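About this split. The held-out portion is used to measure sequence recovery: a designer receives only the structure tokens and must propose an amino acid at every position. Recovery is the fraction of positions where the proposal matches the reference. Here is one held-out target exactly as it appears in the evaluation file.
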């Protein structure tokens, strides 16, 4: 979500800068963040010194990646494009889009990954190759953590009726182990000595194939969701009995399933920004469902529909009535901080969808529960 349009006086304050504080007052909240981002860029203007204006502390308060992520979270697309163009062309802030040295020295992070995804269209081929290596390292770290969560969720239910010879932690039966070793309790030392730890077997969950369609809103505000959805799709790709399709959308729909096994390649093809036509994406998912009773559609979006709201609700309802399980995810980053159209979310719930905010690990657990049901 971008910053709500401020009233005329606040807009003048953002335009005039800190010098207007005595007359218009200092900005607060998101306006203060927007003002800091503008000051970070336009505070570099040498003509301000000639006019007797004093620069603020903006340039030292934000790193380049932080600034890029801030403007993408606060301003509409046309303003973002102008700010980025001014940063590169007017003020020469080209560390991200032209400097191999910065990309090779900077510590890979999710913050920097978001910045790369926002600016990759401005990079020359040599810098893009370096950026791809950075993306690969961040994705590797995310996948390493997420793959464990996915495997645990889909590893099968514990069957306490059958013991297992596989002595691994996730199969350890604590209660039965204590019960069967109580005769080895030492009251003087107040310790229980284990002679025979008990491990249980796991039942298989999948007898038929399940089809999972991930519909990912690729508007600028959904960058965290795009990143984690790409990695989640790759984790689900190799699970037995699972067929995963990943589709990105704005006002157009792009099927990225061919790149699901390579989340780096997938992310480098995503085009962030633009409008949103959720109904068109849901229609595409409908056209790819062959067995509704064994299908799950996960819609990752902020639910701000730029197309027909009526058509969106109608198609979600049709999916549910056909037997498809539909989940609407308002957030898909590790903090699960939701920012979404609650009215539309309520309408989708009334149509039979499940709507919530989940971390990637929680999504894996939800999918496993629905597959097991």
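Reference sequence for scoring:
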């Amino acid at each position: 979500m971008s910053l709500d349009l401020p009233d005329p006086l606040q807009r003048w304050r953002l335009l005039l800068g800190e010098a207007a504080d005595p007359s218009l007052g200092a900005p607060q909240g998101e306006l203060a963040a927007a003002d800091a981002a503008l000051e970070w860029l336009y505070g570099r203007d040498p003509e301000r010194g000639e006019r007797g204006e004093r620069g603020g502390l903006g340039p030292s308060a934000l790193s380049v990646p932080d600034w890029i992520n801030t403007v993408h979270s606060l301003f509409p697309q046309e303003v973002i494009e102008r700010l980025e163009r001014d940063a590169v062309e007017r003020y020469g802030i080209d560390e991200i889009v032209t400097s191999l040295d910065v990309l090779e020295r900077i510590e890979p992070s999710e913050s920097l990954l978001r910045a790369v995804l926002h600016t990759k269209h401005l990079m020359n081929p040599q810098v893009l190759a370096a950026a791809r290596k950075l993306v690969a390292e961040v994705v590797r770290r995310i996948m390493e953590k997420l793959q464990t969560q996915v495997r645990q969720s889909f590893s099968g239910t514990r069957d306490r009726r059958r013991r297992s010879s596989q002595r691994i932690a996730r199969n350890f039966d604590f209660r039965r182990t204590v019960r069967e070793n109580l005769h080895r309790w030492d009251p003087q030392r107040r310790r229980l000595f284990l002679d025979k730890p008990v491990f249980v077997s796991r039942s298989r969950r999948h007898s038929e194939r399940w089809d999972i369609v991930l519909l990912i809103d690729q508007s600028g505000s959904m960058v965290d969701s795009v990143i984690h959805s790409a990695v989640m799709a790759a984790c689900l790709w190799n699970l037995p009995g699972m067929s995963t399709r990943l589709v990105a959308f704005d006002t157009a729909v792009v099927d990225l399933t061919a790149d699901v096994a390579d989340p780096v390649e997938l992310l480098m093809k995503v085009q962030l920004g633009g409008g949103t036509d959720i109904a068109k994406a849901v229609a595409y998912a409908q056209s790819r469902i062959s067995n509704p009773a064994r299908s799950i559609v996960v819609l990752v979006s902020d639910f701000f529909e730029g197309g027909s709201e009526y058509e969106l609700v109608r198609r979600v309802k049709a999916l549910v009535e056909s037997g498809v399980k539909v989940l609407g995810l308002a957030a898909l980053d590790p903090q699960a901080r939701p920012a979404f159209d609650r009215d539309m979310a309520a309408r989708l719930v009334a149509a039979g969808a499940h709507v919530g905010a989940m971390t990637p690990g929680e999504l894996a657990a939800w999918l496993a529960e629905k597959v097991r049901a």
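Annotator remark: The chain has a mean pLDDT of 80.
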